Amino acid sequence: MANLTLVQAINLALIQEMERDDRIIILGEDIGVNGGVFRVTEGLHKRFGEKRVVDTPLAESGILGTAIGLAMAGLRPIPEIQFEGFLAPAYDQICTHAARMRSRTRGALTVPLTVRVPIGGGIHAPELHSDSPEAVYAHQPGIKVVMPSSPYDAKGLLISAIRDPDPVIFFEPKRLYRAFREEVPEDEYTIPLGKARVVAEGDEVTVISWGAPVVQCMTAIEASGKSIELIDLRTIYPIDTQTIVQSVRKTGRAVIVHEAPKNCGLGAEIASRIMEHCFLYLEAPIQRVTGFDMTMPYYKKELEYLPEAERIGKALAEVAAY
Amino acid sequence: MTTMTTRPAALENLATKLPDETLRKWLRDMLLIRELEVRTMQAYQNKLIGGFCHIYIGQEAVAVGTIAAVKPTDPIITAYRDHGHALARGMDPKHCMAEMFGRIDGCAKGKGGSMHMFDKAHHMYGGHGIVGAQCPIALGLAFSVKYHDEVIEEKTSNGVTLCYLGDGALNQGSFHEAMNLAGVFNLPVIYICENNGYAMGTSIARGTTMAHQLTAKADAYGMASASIDGMDVVNVYNQMKPIVDDCRKNSCPAFVEIRTYRYKGHSMSDPRKYRTKEEEQQYEEQDPIEKHAAFLIKEKGFSEADHDAMVKDVRKQVRAAIKWAEASPIPDISELYTDVYADKWGPYTGTSESSMLGDPEK
Questions:
Q1: A69, B118: Cβ pair inside 8 Å?
Q2: How many other β-carbons are positioned within 10 Å of the β-carbon of residue B303?
Q3: Contact A22/B151, CB-based, under 8 Å?
Q4: Which of A294, B58, B104, B132 could make an SS bond with B263 (beta carbons 3.0 to 4.6 A apart)?
Q5: What are the chain B neighbours of A108 within 8 Å (beta carbons)?
Q6: Which residues from A are below 8 Å from B120, CB to CB?
Q7: Domain A197-321, classified CATH 3.40.50.920, yes or no
Q8: Which tens digit of pLDDT belongs to each residue from A65-78?
Q9: Count of H helices and E strands in chain B?
Q10: Are the Cβ atoms of B108 and A61 closer than 8 angstroms?
Q11: Tell me: domain A2-184, CATH 3.40.50.970, correct?
Q12: From CA A67, how far away is CA A117, in angstroms rounded?
């Protein structure tokens, strides 16, 4: 056991997987010699050499396209895209090729790659460096979307993603990269994709969140003094509907918290699934505490945009009292 | 503008050193592509094929001549005018036809269609629908061959990957990213621009800079290049072979413009208002299939009777392919979720499975 940050947990997972499987190649902008913009790949270039840890030019479509070709030919590439906003130039490759290759070729060619992408706000960066586009990619059949909220989960989920036969977008909340440490086993372990984690048990309200806001939810729940169940989705797609439904049938009340804008956010999909499966159990309208429907504001206004503990606490009180 | 990286025309007639059997097979391959395309157009008009359909007639010498210059295990990838490349690579026309008909025995079990010819056994990596977007994938294919040989097997790598693109793709960002990366990574990938003069309905001069000298695109990336007449399969082979050998030996990329002409429209619904009948006729008069047949008859002891028998045999093969494809079943609706993810009935069917199957209890 070691007390690791989320960055260190991911770094450890990459090292262990690369040692286990020589089909793994990592590639991206400044990920080699420099160790990546957030230093997640620190030391890998020295350890595994330039043939397996490949510095690329600034060309996201080219990076993803190369990774897709590598995966189609039987390797296990792990490209890194520096910020979630830079996924846009690679959107074409992800959604027209990676997501559809298995279906288009009827299983003859597959794309087992894991794209690592820092996501979200809270580090005083401008827009394109602070966005939360997870719903965009969850909407595309053929890809899986993962977002851990703790060092322990990050290691186990990343190993599962790398070994998964389908393309996975692995979003890493920047705000949590070095926010806290946690005991992370040195031995390898996996956390299955598609399974949520019940962070705290309770019977008054269910809170569903993922990524950095999970930490804000914990603060809000503690301050509320109520018995609240907190579910960390961990995998954005496929959504673990069963865990959500079980909890909401018990509490009859639900609050969904995410950083992305409310309009067409994943909260809408989750609320709809709750309606389909828990209608007769509901005691209050479902609330969503989210980012606003706007371009991510610059850092002076960032914390007012993000779903911070205070705003979450207000929603909890309203839903509980309804 | 430097000419240093531009290759001179091949000096040696390498094709004449090949067995007669190989040169005859080139003719048969071109006849097969032409016949399949003619029947494809008929089938499309008879509504046996849906969606869009891009016909390769006129360009046959490009696919056949370039594929003849590489090994059967070298990966190839192309855009959506892809039937010719698939057949030249060895795909059985019945699987090609069944795919276009949307039948379960198609090369992608009727899920891809005309633009998505895939044949893993023949190292044919598709058939891609977004203009130019196949260019970076070719890098990954070339990279994987090199990585597999050098890092996993620890031996010298000598693979080469062919990536076909139309002249319209020269204007796409992904093409330029790929050209730069190919140079930076020293990957043995050859970008083959099939310049048929038109990006859909826009002539190359109206849409592309340096249209009169496309090898300039390669100069910008310090890459070897050549401009080749694609209306003669022997010429295509003779010029391609030394480039292929060079890229293979030195693990380096190249860019090749092959000048050709599509006799038909961009797709089946193209009224071709952007060019004249006279222009079309002018190219049809230099037909690559007739040219190669005449060459075989004149130089290689191929008789008119041999030619007639070959034409007849190809027609028979394509007729049989159509019959076979029509007999192949249409996939059942329950098949639709197969291969969306590796785990067919996992949680990925999400919200839509029960309504699709009409089973509210599921």
A1: no
A2: 10
A3: yes
A4: B58
A5: 108, 118, 120
A6: 105, 108-109
A7: yes
A8: 999 999 999 999 99
A9: 13, 7
A10: no
A11: yes
A12: 14
